[in-house]
Design brief:
Distance between the termini: 54 Å
CATH topology of the largest domain: Rossmann fold
Largest sheet: 6 strands, mixed
Shape: elongated
Number of strands: 13
Bound molecules: adenosine-5'-diphosphate, magnesium ion, zinc ion
Radius of gyration: 38 Å
Strand content: 5-15%
Mean pLDDT: 82
CATH superfamily of the largest domain: P-loop containing nucleotide triphosphate hydrolases
Oligomer: single chain
Helix content: 40-55%
Low-confidence stretches: 1-6, 146-154, 409-415
Length: about 600
Amino acid sequence: MDEKQKNNNDKKKQYILLTVLGVLIIVLAGIAYLFMMNTDKIDDKELAYTELINEINEGNIEKIEMTVGSTTAKIKLKGVEEEKTTIIPSTQAFVELIQQKLEDGNEFEFIQKPTNVFVTISTTLFSLLPTLLLVALIVLFFKMQGLGDKGKVYDSETIKSKVKFDDVAGLDEEKHEMIEIVDFLKNPERFNKMGAKIPRGVLLCGQPGTGKTLIAKAIAGEANVPFISMSGSEFIEMFAGLGASRVRKLFEKARKVSPCIIFIDEIDAIGSRRTSSSGAESENNQTLNQLLVEMDGFDTDETIIVLAATNRPEMLDKALLRPGRFDRRITIGLPDMRGREEILKIHAKGKKFAEDVNLKSIAEDTAGFTGAELANILNESAIIATINEHEAITNKDIEEAVKKVTVGLEKQSRVISEKDKKLTAYHEAGHAIVSSQLETQKGVKEVSIIPRGLAGGYTMYKSDEDKYYISKTEMEEKLVALLGGRAAEKIVLNDISTGASNDIEVATGIAKNMITKYGMSESLGPISINTEQDPYELQMLGEKFGDAIGAEVKILLDNAYIRAQKLIHENRDKLDRVAEALLEKEVISAEEFQELLAR
Ligand code: ADP
Ligand code: MG
Ligand code: ZN
């Protein structure tokens, strides 16, 4: 929190600076303009050049005074108290003319003053000032652009972490593994004397929001050492070589405050596989190489632990994972039911709940949620309770919060036509009916045609247990359930809509994974192909192989779609009942759904 605030303050300061500079430029421009007006406006004291020549010829001049290099001359006429000014078109010619006149016998005083160095410098500076300010403005602007949201670039963040292991719910095994690192940071001599080697680099793998940053901070907090953090994306800069020098500075800083923790978030941004291409890639390589050099250069008396976080460990350059570098990997998975309950308990602290609220049952309903999402749900529920002017957070507030976090905000204002409503009703009823007829699919928890986020409606499924493995049959039936929406649209309305695009995308993704990741294809057998990681992998395997994959994926999807249509035909009466109920009530609960099926 306070990190963000600090960044915000920095940004504010820069904005103020920008504004001040802008105003300054405008004011100076104004002054310069007035000056120019002034020089034009001395006409009552001005003597036109032709008049001056006349006056010289007529012998009326007492004194002419001019500064070398200047274009104006001061003229004193005989018998006139006031001095006049004349603008000289060509200084050289004028001086020659005067000398000619003096030689010809005209009598007047002619004084040529040397240039005043100070005046010259100041006028030059003054004329350059707007340019200088503009340059400053542009530099500042570009700097701010480069900063993005981060607020500052040149410095990593050093904080004194107050997070303790008790603030991290679940993850008992992971915490256990971390205890030796904490001990090492607290008492490195003991380990060194024994000749024990502690891993210097630990890779934390896991989805966003699973608590990687949290556990890294907890290690620093438990060991009571400084926590120096930087995000991998911050190393990537538009100026070549900057990334490497930042890595150097980061480690320099760490060596000064050692024992300490260095935390590199999103390490995949710098540590992804080195390729031979140029540009940004080679910049990454320099940064990555510097990181490797720094980690290899650790002395035994330097007590620095480098923790890095990533969601894509398979993208990392293998060199990063060699002994002495990030040779310890800890994978943080999604929390299980007990873990979810504990996370909820931690974030329920300081919040007021109604008596019927049961954190355990929330935990039961939130399989697949990350710690961050659970924390978010409780926070949202407190906001919703406040808006609804409840005494305490009720179960209904929490349900609302769950929906808000999962499907986006309820769009009550969106006006939907009757036709769209019918289409959505049959689409969602199609999902619900089809999945209810499939052995492996989870029970329906709620069906709704109230639009949320981008979706026109939604079907929520019960989650009865945490699963670690999914069978082929279950995946195949998942495809059928996903295509149930489109099948219902086609059969009932004899038309199809774009509403199923997300379903189709998800289904295609699953089908592809079944073939290329889980080896579930009969003809291709157990093989893993990751074209995202290596675009040439398919080329290597041959064109026919690629064709075979495409054919297998298509067969899976086609079969699922046929099965979905069959189920819709067979259960047409149930489908109609559910769709009609949806059109009437907009939302159907699990009990109502069961009742409609049984009727
Ligand atoms: P990551 O770095 O993996 O993206 P974070 O550590 O930033 O995730 O987690 C975001 C927030 O989610 C944390 O600040 C915390 O509030 C909550 N959170 C995540 N996991 C846990 C957990 N195991 N226990 C308690 N809170 C958690
Ligand atoms: Mg994080
Ligand atoms: Zn759908």
